[in-house]
Structure formats: structure tokens, C-alpha cells
């Protein structure tokens, strides 16, 4: 069977980074991320045969691993995929990434620490201009049922004047608005393996050729329809949603037809899979606040903000229901004035709150997201 003549991901990066000098140093990093996605794809496919299902086991005690910072029991795949992504950003980035933050870890880590360097003395890994954030395996519980999962990532430029510590880590470099991201993307592991990326000038999709083991550009310049008939919410939580969300969903279902198409509901339970479906077909994805989770469950830094950047670059929108996701500033660290840490040393607990802060998240076609925001304005929030 004759294959299409498609541009490789490597060639795409060569051209795009040549066109935009501001991100020229990121080509090796993004190639390493693509290779990490290939590794994770193989691991996901072999999870059953290689006994990688289930909770992670502490190799020292033989007991279940502790819960991660999100209060979730880490799965074996969480731990393995986290290691792969850490090494991709830190070990193959040509020293342009100086620190990383993962959903699986309580605080960011310097790349010097990740790669085992002596952080008491200066080393080349402290000189990077970027920090990376990621969720290594979103929806890992889906793997037990052979359902889609994914990886989400974003890259920020360290702010001018940021003063790094002796190991090259400055926590404040992570506590930026999403508008400061220079790149965002995700990998979807499903019927096909798809890498979707934005460098701030449009969105492009690449499909992994299983024969060549190369990502090929199958979706150039992705544009989400201005309005869509698809909605992707976990309606089992409908009674826990605020009135504006309930009214929006009720209105959409009662209308029957949106954008000339019959209204349809699709919900897989993995952020990457559900958002990708909306990106391609149009509509809206939502993870609202509930009574038990007043800010929703999606993390701003490495889930909501990267996905919002992708949506906006594709002509869509990302909202908290009250405003643009990319405008949300994570909680900033407070100075700890206690006697134990020193007057000028910020509190790591405060940093952790900012790194892992959650926000209600709505992503999709501009018309759909606009209508949702209008419901918030008209009906207000529940007390």
C-alpha cells in the first residue's frame, strides 16, 4: 500500500524554529518530547502483557506507593511515564530547559537535580532559559479498560530578572500566566498516536507512522469550527454543577440542533481524548466546579493552560466560566517571616499551592464557550 508523502515532525520543527528565532533553541527539546511520546505509546500498548497495570509498588517495602500530591494513589504507569518525561525535558534539551514541574511531584525540580548533578556547584544545566510543565499520563486509570489516555505539556520562558538558586531552580518561573507560554502540546494514545503542538503561530497535528516510527504531519493548521454540536461533560455530576452550567447543558440539549448538526454527547474521561475530539469536530469540553471540588479538578499549570493555548491558537476559546484561562495568575509565593527559614525565603507550601492550583475549565468553539459565559453572567454562581 502506497503511503502519503507527508512532512516529518523533525522537518516541521527545523522550519518553524528557523522562522521564529525566539524559539530556535527548543527544537531538540521538542524532538525529545516526541521520542518520549513514542516510548509512552509502546508502554501503554504493552501494559497488560508486561504487567504494568495497577497501583505502583514501593520497591523497598513491597507495599503500595504513597499517594501523590493530588491525593491519588500513583499507578505504575504514572511513575514510569513521569520518569520518561523528566528525562526528555532535562536530558535531551541541550541545556535550554533548567527546571520542570510534574503533576506527579509536589514541587518543581531543577534539571540538575533530575539528571543527578552536584547542585552545590555551578553546572551548565543551570543556564537554561525555559521551564517545562507536564502531566505525564492523563487518565491512566483508563488503561485498565483499554481506553484512550494522553500526555499534556507546556513550556514557559523564565521571566527576565528571575534569580535562580544554586541548583538552577526558581519556583517563581512557574507561577506565570498562561499567556507567557511559548509552546504547548499533547500526545493522544488511542486508535492512532497523535501529537498536537502549538508554537504560538497555529496548531499542527502529527500522527505516528507505526512502520517508520516517525511522527508525520497529517493535520496542518488545525482550525476548530466556530460552533459545534458536541458537548463533553461528565453528566453523572450534573446535580453537583452550579446553576449556570446546568442551564447551559439543558439549553444545549433542548435545542436539539447546534450549528446545523444534531447535538451529541461524548465523554471518555481522559482530558486529552475529550479535548482532541472537540478540537477536531467542534463543540465544548467542560470540567466544572462541583460542591465537593469548588475549583474543579483540572490543574491550571499543566492541564488547563496548555490546552487553552492550543484551543485559542486553533481559533477556539478557553474559559473558567468567569474569564479567559490564560489570564489566570497562579497564587504567588508569600515570604516566610518565621525564625526557622529566614526572612527572605519563600514558603514551599505556598509554592506547592501555586504549582498545583485547580480551575474550572471549559474549552472549545468560540460560540459555545461564549454561550457558557453568558449563562454565568445571567444566572450567577450558587452560594
Overview of the structural elements:
It is a single chain. Helix content is 29%, strand content 20%. The protein is of the alpha+beta class. About 2% of the residues have low confidence. Strand 1 and strand 2 form a beta hairpin. Helix 2 packs antiparallel against helix 3. It has an 8-stranded mixed beta sheet with strand order 2-1-3-4-5-6-7-8, with helices on both faces. Strands 12-9-13-15-14 form a 5-stranded mixed beta sheet, sandwiched between helices.
Average pLDDT confidence is 87
Radius of gyration: 21 Å
Structural class: alpha+beta
What's the total helix number? 9
- Which geometry do the CA atoms define? globular
Secondary-structure element pattern, one letter each:
HHHEEHEEEEEEEHEEEHEHEHEH
Q: What's the total count of β strands?
A: 15
Name the helicity range. Answer: 25-40%
Percent range for β-strand residues: 15-25%
Indicate the low-confidence ranges by residue numbers: 338-346
Spatial strand arrangement across the major sheet: 2-1-3-4-5-6-7-8
Largest sheet: 8 strands, mixed
Roughly how many Å apart are the termini? 61 Å
